[in-house]
Design a protein that fits this description.
Elements: H1 3-17, H2 26-48, H3 56-69, H4 91-94, H5 96-116, H6 124-145
Helix pairs in contact: 2-3, 2-6, 3-5, 5-6
């Protein structure tokens, strides 16, 4: 059996499975960060809403991770829209001031969530509005700047 066509087929399937996005491109980097943010946020919300067992240390660690991640994707939006098949609307590049404002609001809300975890033992009733603010920040930016 000739392995070359087989391996080429596997590589092609792998690229199709990941939408052919170069993980080292600005699009690939920000997609990876946004996926990490989504996963982390879902875990925090899941602990507060009873989908996952509430684990205080895991919640604190998740809040810190989310705060760190919230500062990362913006550097991977180049000055000019790339040619890749991005789900970001043209408005990201046309309305940079508003886009950056929403990015800073998310960063402020994740920082506030981390600050809310300083008081132990953690009270999910205190944390829930903080997580909601983070989720609302994500949602408001998506409504303005993401093409669904």
């Amino acid at each position: 059996m000739n392995l070359k066509p087989f391996l080429l087929g596997i590589a092609t399937l792998a690229l199709v499975a990941c939408n052919g996005v170069d993980p080292n491109s600005p699009l690939g980097k920000r997609q990876a960060i946004f996926k990490q943010m989504l996963h982390t946020s879902e875990d925090l919300g899941g602990m507060l809403r009873g989908r996952l067992v509430f684990d205080e240390q895991r919640f604190v660690d998740g809040a810190v991770k989310l705060d760190q991640l919230s500062h990362e994707p913006w550097q991977h939006f180049p000055q000019v829209k790339e040619k890749d098949d991005t789900s970001a609307r043209d408005e990201v590049w046309q309305r940079q001031e508003r886009f950056q404002q929403l990015a800073r609001e998310l960063e402020q809300n994740t920082a506030a969530l981390v600050a809310a975890t300083a008081n132990r033992p953690l009270d999910p009733r205190v944390l829930e509005p903080q997580v909601k603010r983070v989720e609302d920040s994500c949602e408001s930016c998506h409504h303005e700047f993401r093409a669904y």
